[in-house]
Amino acid sequence: MLRENGKVITMEETQQALSTADRTRKLLDLYEFGVATSIAEVVPGESGTSVTGLPKEASVGTKRFSDFDLAGNAFVVTGGARGLGLALAEALVEAGGKVYCLDRLPEPDQEWQRAQQRVVPEWGGTLEYKQLDVNNTAELNRLMEEIASENGGIQGVIAAAGIQQLTPAIDYTAEDVNKMIQTNYTAAFMTAQAAARMMLKYKSRGSICLVASMSGSVANKGLFSSAYNSSKAALIQLARNLAMEWSSVKANGEGGIRVNCLSPGHIVTPMVLKNFEEVPGLRETWSQENMMGRLAETSEFKGAGLFLMSNASTFMTGSNLVIDGGHTAW
Predict the structure, then answer these.
(1) In the annotation, is 232 catalytic?
(2) Out of 37, 107, 271, 321, which residue is the most buried by the measure of CB atoms under 10 Å away?
(3) Which one from 232, 250, 274, 302 is the annotated catalytic residue?
């Protein structure tokens, strides 16, 4: 037996008090760091409340950041062989997702193979490659159907495939413009459509992310890319309209599909490095254009991709998430 303020207390009472104090400390730590959304049901009170004054029915999750857990869910990333698409795919794998990278390369290059080697099996995620030209709509739909059938649905899709062409506007041909719009806009539209069909079929209420660009909102200094920028602007508007059509849940359970855009600033990717080769001084110009005075790395967008594909963004649709180092803020 122990004494507290001159009163004899039993070992059972002591253990109960220590247990309560320990639970309280742990929960307050979780709340402080943003893991818990409630600090209720810590210590039962005498009138149906906890010592915090909140209802005892309130509780906290048993897993940290459970809204970001993608375990058991399938995802598709077009343009996922390298660059930004691959970085976004890796984020989903790290969160436990089963990720399929679709790209036009017959075989994935070393960048993708290194990413596959980084997969930690204990985390539950997998990374798989499938060859696809996103302009082949029939094959796109077939692959979406195949992946959905294998996994009981598709939870999320990131449309990151895209091309660039640097040409003065006065010299663009109709064929050049059509090619740019076909790959950057029409193929992304068809990717979202193919994904939505599977989400409606399996009633998965998934998430679709169209990778646009800050170039869809501003002109790029020193870069003749009018067709590219226009195609990215079209994606931003497309996301709003698809969200309007697909986001509400119908009486039969269909719908609930979130559609958003991700608009990165200047990133060091294979496509951008090619731009630097073609335009002398462009790298220095771009590095000075945002508030941070540097270019972005693809890894700096992994958190955004995970957020958009996870349950952490269930009330976000029809939006354009701009991450550009402050470029468009001044």
Answers:
(1) yes
(2) 321
(3) 232
